[in-house]
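1st attempt posting a full record on here, be nice pls
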Amino acid sequence: MKRFLALGDSYTIGEGVAASDRWPNRLAALLRAEQVEVSDPEIVARTGWTTDELSSAIDTAAPQGPFDLVSLLVGVNDQYRGLEIEGFRRRFTTLLQRSIAFASGAPSSVVVVSIPDWGVTPFAREQRRAMLKVADEIDAFNRVVRSEVSQAGARFVDVTPISRVALNDPALLASDGLHPSASMYRLWVEQILAAARAAVVGGD
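the predicted structure (as tokens):
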């Protein structure tokens, strides 16, 4: 049985949805449906975590590798708290290297998912956050993520465009008006599946 470690924040722990609807759990189930024997994910994630907080939590949890698949989705809380982007780059790169180490040093076994755009949500409007400003900042953070992932040789999956569809489709949001619903996570998994399959069994 292949082992799966999922690292992140609210998007990985699935704030507002059932455990079975978290995207890492859905992904594992879909891989098994395709005869790729993957265990349910070991998850190190919590709502609100920044890159620093995730790194500290990994120290505490001390996951025991090696893992055949490692996912990383983090950064939205760095953006939300107004942390500067070069500091984010350093912290994200450290997390990426830790992810690769958990995957026996194989970058191709690491799948990094882009930061969703929460600026389209009702929560952002309640916070009086300008949608275009949030979008610009999310795009800037994601450029860092994509660049670092490319340099490291890991796999990058862009779900940010899907997150923006929620502007006109409230069914894609959980009841809190901020986090993705099970329906959005299903769309994410469709996007992530090919990269995850390749990470586990090999290939492009």
